[in-house]
What we know:
The structure is a single chain. The chain is of the alpha+beta class. The chain has helices at 7-12, 86-95; strands at residues 18-23, 27-32, 49-53, 59-63, 66-70, 75-78. It is built from 2 helices and 6 strands, in the order H-E-E-E-E-E-E-H. The strands form 2 sheets. A 4-stranded mixed sheet has the order 1-2-3-6. Strands 4-5 form a two-stranded antiparallel ribbon. A hairpin with a 3-residue loop joins strand 1 (18-23) and strand 2 (27-32). The N and C termini lie far apart (33 Å).
Amino acid sequence: MPFNEDxxxxxxxxxxxxxxVSTGPHAQVVVMSIPPAGEIGEEVHHDVDQVLAFAEGExxxxxxxxxxxxxxxxxxxxxxxxxxxxxxxxxxEEHA
Length: 96
């Protein structure tokens, strides 16, 4: 389903820890409300990419071991993993 919305207003109005607002065949848009000094923990996305836009606050994103700052206006893209076959998926899990 097409998605066209003021994402900053949606994020600032979000009262939930995590709300998925749109999921397409290859990407997902999520708004989150993380408390000060909070964290979301480690995530791995196997089915779809995830796009996060930061509306308020500041923090650190750790992507593939690299730490980068996140501040208002930043967008973080977490690539999904596509496995064409079960054998590919099994091999990926063995190396994780």
